[in-house]
Amino acid sequence: MLLENMSYVEVEAYLVEKDIILIPIGSVEQHSPYGLIGTDFITAEAVAREVGKRLDILVAPTITYGMSQHHSGFKGTVTLSPLTLTSLVIDISNSLLNQGFKRLVFINGHGGNINPVKTAFDHIKYQNKQGILQIISWYLLPEIQEMEKDIFEELNGLHATPSEVSITKFLRPEAFKNKPKEKKKVEKIETYFPLSGEEFKKIYPDGRMESAPWLAKEKYGKLILEEAVRATANIIKDILKKKII
C-alpha cells in the first residue's frame, strides 16, 4: 500500500473505497555519535508502513527533511525553516485533499516538526478545507513513554534516546558496526527553548539531551516498534470511525 508503487488508476480505485492516507515525516539531523542522522524519518517511516500494511491503508512517500535548526551546529544536519516546512505540508495536504483524500495522518518522528505541521493544519482550515488533519508523534504516545521508562528508567532522555536508537538498530543493524559503545555521563540540564544551533551545541556538545544511547539494543527496538505500531493503529481506527462534516 505504498503510493510510490501505485499507478494513478490504482489510486482512483482506492479512493472509491477509502479516503485516508498516512504521511511519514521525520528529519535529517544529528543523533549524537551513537545514532543515525536519519533516525527520525527511519522510525516514522517504519511505523507508518507497518500500520498501513496491517490496516490496508495507503502510505505516502516519506517527508525526510524537517525543522531541525537547533541541530544545525552539527555536520550532516539538513534543516528546513519553520516557514518552509509549514508551506511544504500545506502544499502536500492540499494536493491530497483536492484529489478526494479526507483523512490525512502525519506519522511524525521529530519534535521540531510539531508546531510547523499544526500551523499548516490551521492554515488549511483557514482556507475552509474539509477533512481530518492529524499528526501522531509515535515517541509521545503514552504507551511508548511507559515502555521507555520500564526499560531505560530515567536514562531515555529527550534526544538521541536509547529508544529511537534501538529501533534503528533493529531496522539497520549494519549501520552500527562502527558506532561507539562506551558510557558517558548523563546530565540533567536546565535551559530555555527554543535554541539556536549555536546555543544547542554549547549546552549539548555531543548532541545528546539527557540520554544514554549506549543502552540501545535491537531486541528493545523490536519491542518498542511493535508497541508504536499497535498504539498508532488504534488511534487510526478511531479516526476512521469519525464522520467527515
Overview of the molecule:
The protein is α/β, with parallel strands linked by helices. The protein has one domain: Creatininase (Rossmann fold, 3-Layer(aba) Sandwich), CATH 3.40.50.10310. Helix content is 45%, strand content 8%. Helix 4 links the parallel strand 3 and strand 4. Helix 2 crosses helix 6 (162-171) and helix 6 (162-171) packs across helix 8. The radius of gyration is 18 Å and the shape is globular. The model has no long low-confidence stretch (mean pLDDT 98).
**SSE pattern:** HEHEHEHEHHHH
Relevant CATH superfamily: Creatininase
Distance between the termini: 27 Å
- Per DSSP, the total helix count is 8
- Rg from Cα: 18 Å
Level-2 CATH architecture:
3-Layer(aba) Sandwich
Shape: globular
Main β sheet profile:
4 strands, parallel
Oligomer type? single chain
State the low-pLDDT regions, or none: none
Structural class computed from helices and strand pairing:
alpha/beta
Number of domains: 1
Instruction: Write the CATH fold name.
Output: Rossmann fold
What value does the average pLDDT take?
98
Strand content: 5-15%
Strand order of the largest sheet: 2-1-3-4
Number of strands: 4
| Share of helical residues | 40-55%
> CATH first level: which class?
Alpha Beta
